[in-house]
Amino acid sequence: MSQIYLKNIPHESIFELVGQVQTIPGQIVSKTLAQNSAVSITLFAFGKGEEIGTHDSDGDAMVSVLEGTGKFIVDGHEYILKTGQSLVMPANKPHSVYGEEDFKMILTVIFPSSK
């Protein structure tokens, strides 16, 4: 049996990534697709007005908006991203995420290699 590196999504099937999480009013829904010491891939669905407060990460974080509009504040700079747009939030810079409306995104974080 082979090891599974990507979880919680279909394998060897065509699917739409945006359909893998559902927006629920008043909530943030997340689904982890991969998590290890090198990478983290997570799908998120934000209800309008929901937010993840200011924090930082050891790795570079790239967000891609799959549906809707989200506001991202990175090191004091505001970015409004719409469907199809992406943004890299550099490692160790404070950032936050806010649902300007219901929106879905995929977050990929690449962590520094441990030597």
UniProtKB/TrEMBL annotation:
Gene3D superfamilies for this protein: Jelly Rolls
InterPro entries found in the cross-reference section: Cupin_2 (IPR013096), RmlC-like_jellyroll (IPR014710), RmlC_Cupin_sf (IPR011051)
Domain of life: Bacteria
CDD domains given in the database record: cupin_HP0902-like (cd02230)
Domain Cupin type-2: 43-110
PANTHER family, per the entry: SLR8022 PROTEIN
Descriptive protein name: Cupin domain protein
